[in-house]
Design brief:
Blueprint (H helix, E strand, L loop, with lengths): L1 E6 L3 H12 L3 E7 L5 H9 L2 E3 L3 H5 L5 E4 L6 H10 L3 E4 L7 H11 L6 E3 L7 H11 L6 E9 L6 H5 L4 H4 L1 H12 L2 E9 L3 H5 L5 E8 L4 E7 L7 E8 L3 E4 L8 E2 L7 E2 L6 H4 L1 H17 L7 H20 L3 E2 L2
C-alpha cells in the first residue's frame, strides 16, 4: 500500500484525490493547500488529514509519495523539497514556464530526474494508448502523418490567460507530448497563432493555433488547437502509416444516435470537459505511478519529457510570433 499526499486542493487536486481514493493500492493520507478550506473539504470527504502548511507533507513519516497539483511557479520548489525528503513524486504539467529553471531542477535531481513523473495524462487515455501501442508494434507500417485535434468548449478568463505562459505552454503542451509519444524526437517546429477572441488578444496570447512538427523519422504531426469550440470538448487523434491508419473519435455519454425525417445520426454532445473526458486516463496514470513507486524503477513520462515538451512550446511561441520555422538541436 502506497501512502499518498496531494498538494493542491483545487480542480486538479480534486481529480487526483479521487483517483488515489479509488485505487486499491493507495491510501490518501494527507491533503495540503494554504488557501481557503479546500484541504479540509477534501480531507473530510476522503478520510485524510489536511493541512494549510505544505511543508507538513515533506515532513510526514507516513507519506510515501507526493502528487503535486500546486500552481506552476511552485512546481520546482515542491519537486525538490519532496525529493530531498525521499518521497516518490508525480507533478502536474508543466514543470515550469521557464526552461532554464527546468534545467536547474533536472541538474539538482540528477539520476532521480527519471523517477519524477510529469502529468501528461493523455498518454494513459485507453484509446490513445492503444493507438500508440498498435502503431509501435508495426500494425500500420511506418508512421507518416499524425493529426491531433484539441479544442476546449470555452476560453478561460483573460486573467488566467495572462499568467498561463501562453497557449503553447498551457494547452498545446499536452499535444506536444502526445506527438513525441507517437513519433519520437521532433527536429522542426512551425506554428500559426490566431486571435479570434479580443480579450485573449488583449492579454497578449493566441486563443487558437495550428502547429506543424517534423520528426527525426520524417513523420509530420499537425496539432489543431482552439480555446473555444461550439460543439464542446473536441479531442481526436489520427495516425496514418504506410499500410494503414488508426484513429480515436470524440467521447460521448452514450453511443445512441437518432435518425428521423429532419435529422439522421443525431448524437449526444461530447463529454463536457477534461475532468469527464479523461477520468480513465487519470486512473491509469496513477496506476503507472504506483507501479513505479513499488518497483523503484523509472517512470514515463518524466521530468525529461516535461522539458522536451516545454522546448517545443517555446519553439512554437517563437514561430507564431515571428513567422519563422524553428530547427531544434
Amino acid at each position: 500500500m502506497v501512502n499518498v499526499a496531494v498538494i493542491g486542493a483545487g480542480r486538479i487536486g480534486t481529480v487526483h484525490a479521487r483517483a488515489v481514493a479509488d485505487n486499491p493500492h493507495t491510501r490518501l493520507t494527507l491533503i495540503a493547500d494554504p488557501f481557503g478550506d479546500g484541504a479540509q473539504r477534501l480531507g473530510e470527504q476522503y478520510g485524510a488529514r489536511h493541512t494549510t502548511e505544505v511543508d507538513d507533507v515533506f515532513a510526514a513519516d507516513d507519506v510515501d509519495a507526493v502528487i503535486i497539483g500546486s500552481p506552476t511557479p511552485l512546481h520546482v520548489d515542491h519537486i525538490l523539497a519532496a525529493a530531498a525528503a525521499g518521497k516518490k513524486i508525480m507533478c502536474e504539467k508543466p514543470v515550469d514556464l521557464d526552461i532554464a529553471r527546468v534545467d536547474e531542477c533536472i541538474a539538482t535531481l540528477g539520476e532521480r530526474a527519471a523517477q519524477v513523473m510529469i502529468g501528461f495524462n493523455r498518454r494513459f487515455d485507453p484509446g490513445f494508448a492503444q493507438i500508440q501501442a498498435r502503431a509501435a508494434a508495426g500494425e500500420i507500417g511506418e508512421i507518416e502523418q499524425v493529426t491531433i485535434i484539441s479544442r476546449d468548449p470555452a476560453a478561460p478568463p483573460a486573467s488566467y490567460v495572462a499568467q498561463s505562459g501562453g497557449i503553447f505552454r498551457d494547452m498545446t503542451i499536452h499535444d506536444f507530448d502526445m506527438a513525441r509519444f507517437l513519433v519520437g524526437d521532433i527536429v522542426e517546429v512551425s506554428a500559426v497563432g490566431q486571435n479570434l477572441d479580443p480579450q485573449i488578444k488583449a492579454a497578449g496570447d493566441f486563443d487558437a493555433a495550428v502547429v506543424t512538427l517534423t520528426a527525426a523519422s520524417g513523420a509530420v504531426a499537425t496539432i489543431i488547437n482552439n480555446r473555444h469550440c461550439p460543439s464542446g470538448y473536441d479531442q481526436r487523434l489520427e495516425v496514418s502509416g504506410s499500410t494503414g491508419m488508426l484513429d480515436a473519435a470524440n467521447h460521448r455519454a452514450t453511443s445512441v444516435r437518432y435518425s428521423g425525417a429532419r435529422y439522421t445520426e443525431a448524437a449526444a454532445p461530447y463529454l463536457d470537459f477534461f475532468l469527464e473526458r479523461y477520468t480513465a486516463a487519470y486512473a491509469a496514470e496513477l496506476a503507472a505511478f504506483v507501479a513505479s513507486c513499488e518497483s523503484g524503477g523509472p517512470v514515463t513520462p518524466n521530468v525529461l519529457d516535461g522539458r522536451a515538451a516545454l522546448a517545443l512550446a517555446d519553439a512554437a511561441t517563437h514561430s507564431a510570433r515571428t513567422g519563422e520555422r524553428v530547427r531544434l538541436s
